[in-house]
Specification:
alpha+beta; 379 residues
Length: 379
């Protein structure tokens, strides 16, 4: 996952810049883990309220929010709607307009009438009314994590966010790796040399597409930190208005023991050879529930077929996206303002269930009429 850029924590002194790593497990780590575990099967709204309260426990609020974003990447949120939220609201408002609703009992009577017409329970109707709102989603599952591992994954996410502001990266590692070289060449103007010990130098320009750059650097560093004798030196201009370029150094012995990645977040099914790429059977973007429904099988069967096919995907929680397409989609959505624009953009990429993809990328919808003018935004 990518840490939101306004949550970056760093130190800068005498031309040196460093991410503000957590160096020992803190109480806030256990607290936030417990918050997520306690809110499984509850709505996102109460979870966000509790997380906001945690910002007043004496820690840097950016650190609290950053840790929470790492935990959110380990969570699956889903809406629980038995009918279309728009249709549910239309029927409820129409029913309410035909009578006086001034008490809880009268509201319940409206819900009972609409629920009976649609063959759902009052509770199911109530859940459907605003299921398209972010705060109404339920936290349906959360992958538990130890506080020390969370500390390292947060440190890594903070580092990647800062590295997105790099103007030059110098990476060393041992052992040839064609796929890693391919990723390095995709990031910028690169020079790769050496045999036993590889040196890769990447020249970069300032960019506003920070999320796309961070995703590419993440792809590279996930692989680099698994190598023997790795090291990284970066020239960083952060924030972009800052005039001085500062240097950041890290290697497997100095600082490398304080970072780690979530292996399940970026699910590697099988890597295909770079020279023998074939079109994925289910496309670059796969909404698992939709494909499974069309084929009349469970999602596990679709995942099994994808694994056997050998395509590599990034798992966004119910939506699989190839690494090559991930940055393109993420960058493209960042330029859009309305639901209609998002629908057209994703349709061009072969997506029919565009709302599922928007949700997977963390977007919310502010519903307006006509529907296509609804605003989309990402926290």
């Amino acid at each position: 996952m990518n840490l939101p850029f306004d949550h970056i924590r760093m130190f800068r002194r005498s031309g040196v810049i460093k991410p503000a790593f957590i160096r020992e497990p803190l109480g806030i780590l256990d607290t936030l883990i417990a918050v997520f575990k306690d809110h499984v099967d509850k709505k996102r709204g109460p979870l966000n309220e509790t997380l906001s309260d945690c910002e007043h426990l004496g820690y840097d609020f950016r650190m609290v929010r950053g840790i929470a974003s790492v935990l959110e990447a380990r969570s699956v949120f889903q809406s629980r709607s038995s009918m279309s939220p728009l249709e549910a609201r239309r029927q409820v408002f129409t029913e309410a307009a035909s009578r006086v609703v001034a008490s809880k009992d009268e509201r319940l009577a409206v819900l009972e009438a609409v629920a009976a017409r649609n063959g759902v329970s009052v509770a199911e109707l109530d859940d459907s009314l605003y299921a398209d709102l972010d705060d109404e989603q339920y936290l349906v599952s959360f992958r538990d994590i130890a506080s020390e591992e969370l500390m390292k994954q947060y440190n890594y996410a903070n580092m990647i966010a800062l590295l997105a502001y790099s103007l030059r990266l110098e990476i060393y590692y041992r052992g040839s790796d064609d796929y890693l070289e391919h990723q390095i060449n995709r990031l910028g103007k690169a020079t790769i040399s050496g045999k036993g010990r590889i040196k890769a130098v990447i020249e970069l320009k300032s960019t506003r597409r920070l999320s796309q750059r961070a995703s590419k650097i993440d792809e590279i560093m996930r692989r680099v930190i698994q190598k023997e004798g790795w090291s990284l030196r970066a020239n960083i201009k952060y924030p972009q208005r800052y005039k001085t370029v500062c240097v950041f150094d890290i290697n497997n012995k100095d600082g490398g023991d304080l970072i780690s990645v979530d292996e399940e977040e970026n699910e590697t099914i099988i890597e295909i050879g770079l020279t023998k790429k074939k079109e994925p059977k289910y496309g670059d973007i796969v909404v698992l529930d939709d494909v499974a429904r069309l084929k009349g099988v469970i999602t596990a069967q679709i995942k099994k077929e994808i694994k056997e096919e050998g395509t590599r995907y990034r798992d966004l929680g119910g939506v699989l996206v190839t690494p090559e397409k991930h940055g393109e989609i993420k960058d493209g959505l960042a330029k859009l303002d309305t639901l209609g624009e998002a629908q057209r953009f994703l349709k061009e990429h072969g997506v029919s269930d565009f709302l599922a993809v928007l949700e997977a990328y963390g977007y919310q919808v502010e519903w307006l009429r006509p529907r296509g003018n609804s605003k989309i935004y990402r926290l």
